[in-house]
Each structure stands twice: as structure tokens, then as C-alpha cells.
Amino acid sequence: MWLINTDTLTLKEVTGPFAHDYAILSHTWGSDEITFQDIRSSERHEIKKKKGFSKVAKTCEIAHQQGLEYAWIDSCCIDKSSSAELSEAINSMFAWYQHSKVCFAFLSDLQPCDSKDVASKISFPYTEETFGRCHWFTRGWTLQELIAPDNIEFYNCEWKQFSRKTDCLNILSNITGISYAVLQDSSSLRHTPVAVKMSWAATRDTTRVEDRAYSLLGIFDINMPMIYGEGDKAFRRLQEEIARETNDLSLFAWRACPHTEGKSQIFRGLFATSPSEFSSCATITKSVARHDTQQEFSLTNKGVRIQTKLFKHADNAYIMSLGLTLATGIPVCISLTRTTDGFVRNEPWSLEYERAVTNADTTRELFTIHVRKDVSPQEDSALRKRMHRSFRITFELPASLKLEMVVPDPKYLWDSFHSTFLSNDSSKSSAARLKIIIRGTDGNFSEEFPLVLILGWTRTLQKPFAVLYGATKSADTARGAVRDVLPTDFPDLIGDDVDWGHGRQDIFENAVSTVFSTPRFQAMEVQFINAKMMVLHRGVRKSSAYVARFHAKLESRCDDADVITYHVCLSGLLSRLEGREAVSNAYTHVLATNSSLEE
User: Fold this and answer.
1) Which interval of the chain is the signal sequence (predicted)?
2) What is the distance between the alpha carbons of residues 232 and 214, in angstroms, rounded to a whole number?
3) Which of 356, 379, 402 is the last residue of a domain?
4) Distance (Å) of CA 376 to CA 265, 273, 306
5) How confident is the model at residue 497 (pLDDT cuts 50, 70, 90)?
6) Whether residue 374 sits in one domain with residue 394
7) Which has the closest alpha carbon to 522: 588, 570, 464?
8) Beta-sheet pairing, 22-26 with 70-72
9) Residue 591 pLDDT level (bands cut at 50, 70, 90)
10) Which of 81, 168, 377, 539 is the most exposed, having the fewest neighbouring CB atoms within 10 Å of its CB?
11) Which pLDDT value is given to residue 367?
């Protein structure tokens, strides 16, 4: 690294910012800056012709007047032909500004104040609006140049000093969104949420896209190699490095632009694409809620591994609290969707799911999940297809009936948290099966009701189906009967030994067509009768029976992204019949129905 002598304008190589006292320049680059090679050149009269020379000369002049022998100017004190030196300079730039004796902030587009205006403003000569319009406040690199130094002197386009940082902290805070505490003391950065720091850079630009990330290294106290040409990957690498150094979940509190049809992704990874996506995070704070404690997370080759609590939300989503609150007091949460390759973020434009969290059981167990780091537009399209034609199962059971067991097949497509079968390939016919046991819990009555729910979609007919049968293998007896037992010749659409891939789709289509063309393969209601004969005193007998009825209802829904999902509601009812005639009639009805189905 190099310092420029304020008297001779020659360069001196140094090992770091602690070697000498120096002034430092903060400015916006123009088209004709003085470079390292220019300063080293013997043609001094030639470099004086460049527009950028006046900044170098004026910086050195003012520094010399303040008794400083050296100055540091980023345009000419870094040998950018050396990738190693450039990388070292960028990684240490925050330190260079932080340890300077004075920083000169030169605002090249800030015109001198009117003399009357100056007289009317004793402490600060410009309006906040005029000062805030300066190009200096829009550049990525000048963010750390504002925060790092304790002593900043502000100069207008004529190099007239008009204020110091310490004299206009409130104005600077209003313009930039940076807290007063951080502007006053940069050590407060360590106590500031990651998302808040990102928000300060949300509206700032850099000439090269990689510099949007590199200019933030000092803000986050991160070191990483420079790879110009990597584009947006630089910001992804920055987030990965931050994730290795902190468990601050606000790193994931970004918002994508609101979804408009065909113009944004529904599914994203856990990392943002740029600082701009943190623009709404300036006022978030850490939550004091009991269930919002920060959890450990780590990077793996499967994504970001997080141990956290998850809360249910509509449309097969999981809600994860980030342990933060918005200025309105609403918890900051993100919505996740489970895929066969791990979790992804959905609805990335939203952070507000207050109802899902405030109505949740805060004692829910911790889950260990893997969330993908990013999702490409092509993968987003594929994931939409996975959600397309998925089946969600809901149960509506009274207190007298209890869901005891659910066995899904195929298991790898089953999301147990939301009782949903994902689609393996929405363009192909598919089928899935749930074996279900529901138990009666009415008084002393405790009988199992085994059911089988078979679901699917056929490409040929472009239709979904859902059929429900009793799964009992016992025949009707004097004590029990079941209406609509799964027929023994029902097509085996999901058997473990049946592979419908690799060119066997036609066979599968024929099997599914049988379901649609055969009425006895289309049951959606099952009835169980369990009869009892009670002997009362003096030999009096009393007949009674429990009747359990189960019904499956299939609905199709389409969201704004033309993703169709199927919802199957399995409802149940348990009732009690008294008297021999009532029991006999119910039992006879079941037997008659079964006989007609067999015919």
C-alpha cells in the first residue's frame, strides 16, 4: 500500500494504516482521475492537465496545512495492475478510513451557498434536501467512507469547508438512514442487525456490479478475495461469509420486488440477490418474544442448515420467525415450502405472517431443516410444476373420532407437516395412497376404522381423482359391517413393486382409466357399523350400534401463478343407534349396498 507525500506529491510504500498519520479523501470518481501510474510517471506536467489532478493537489494542500505529511487517495494510492494489492486495499479500506486523522469529503456537485442563505443558517448552511441530493450519497463506496472515520470535513465544489461530521450527525442520519449511534461511533456496527446495515446500501450504486458487495466488506468486518467478472455471485459470497461469522437471522429478512405475473420468481433461495432487497429493513429490531430467540445456522452442501421452530400456514407453507419485529411491532417471518430437495423460500416479497406466529403453540419442537441458498429462474419454473397438481389432505373430525395413524405412499413425495403429496412431474399421470386409521373415542367405545384414500391425476383425461374405501379385510358379520371395502381387483397404482416410469406410462393410463370407467372404483364415502347387544337386568336385551361415516370431497384451486392444487377434505361423523329395528335397518342397508356394488 502507498501514501502520497503532501509536499512533493510522491508515493511512499507503507505496510498499513498505522505507519504514519495521514489525511484521506472521500469523493466520487470522475472520468479523468489520477492513477497510481500517473503519480509514478516522470511526466508530471502531463498529469497536471487531467481533471482529477485538482483533487489530488487540493487534498495534499489542505492536509499539509493541517500538519499532515501524508495523504491517502484511492484513485492513485493503489496499484490496480496488481490483483494482490487491489484485493488487499479493498479488504483493508474500512481500516484506512477509520484510522485516518481526518477525512476530506469532497462533494463535487454541491454548489456554494448564497451568502444570505449562509447567514441564516449558523450551524449548517444547506437545506437537508439540497445536501441529500449530492451524488456522494448515492455511491456504494462512500457508505463506509461516511461511517468509518470519526473526523470528516465536508467541502463543496469550490473546496470550501462548510461542516464537520460531528456537527451534522442528525442531518446525515436523516439522509442515509444510518443510526445516530453508528455515525457517532462505528464500533456500534457490531450491535446492528445485518439487515439494517444492508438497508443503508439498498439505494447505492457502483460502477461494477461486484463492488456492491466488495464495498460492504468493512461494514460487516469480512475479508474475502476479489473476483471481478463474477457478477452477482460476489454478493452471494458476501452473504455466505456473513453467515459464517454470525447467527443473525436478519440476514434472511430481505424482500423481493412484489410479484407480477411472469416477471418475478415465486420460489427463491435463502440469500438475496442484491442489497436493494433489504430496502425495507431499516427499522427492524430484535424481538423479545420467547419463541423468537436466535437459532444456530450453518452452511452445508445441501444449503443453509437451521434448527428452528416452524409454524403452519395456508397453501402448504411453513412460517419461520427470524426473531425480529418491524416498526409496527409485527414479527418478521419468512414463508418456506418443502420440496424433495429441501426447503425453498416462497412469497419472497413478504415478511409479515403475524397470524401464523401469534396463534401458534410456542412450545412446538425444534426442526432441523436445510434451505437452499438460491433458486434459479429455471429451477423456479420446475418448482412451480412440483407444486402444480399437488394434493393436500385435511381432516374434519369431531371429538368422538381421533386420527390415529397415516401411512403415505410414496413416502418421498409426502409432506407430513402439511399433509400434502407433492407432484413428482406435473406433466405425467400420477397416483398416491394414504392408509388411514381413525379411532372412535366415545365413552367406552374404542374401535378402529381403517381407511384407504387413493389420489391421482390422469394426463389423458386431464382430471384428478380421489376415492375412499374401507381397508378392513374382515367380512360382514352379525356385529359389524362396512360399506365400500376396497375391491380386490382395484388397479394397483402405487404398489412398491410397480414402476410406472421408463415408458410404462401407457399402462398406467389404462389402469387409471379403469378407475374413471368403473363405478365401483369411485367410492367417496365409507360407512362402518359396529353393533352391540346389551343384557340388562331380568334378561331384558337392548340393541345398539355405533355408525361411523367418512366422506372425501375433492376440490381444485388455482392461484395467481396458474398453479393448480387439489384439496381433499376427509370428514367423519360418529353416531349411535338405539333399538333393534334401527340397528337392523342400518345393517341391512349396508349389506344391500355392498351386494349391489359387487354386481
Assistant:
1) none
2) 11
3) 379
4) 9, 11, 21
5) very low
6) no
7) 464
8) parallel
9) low
10) 539
11) 85
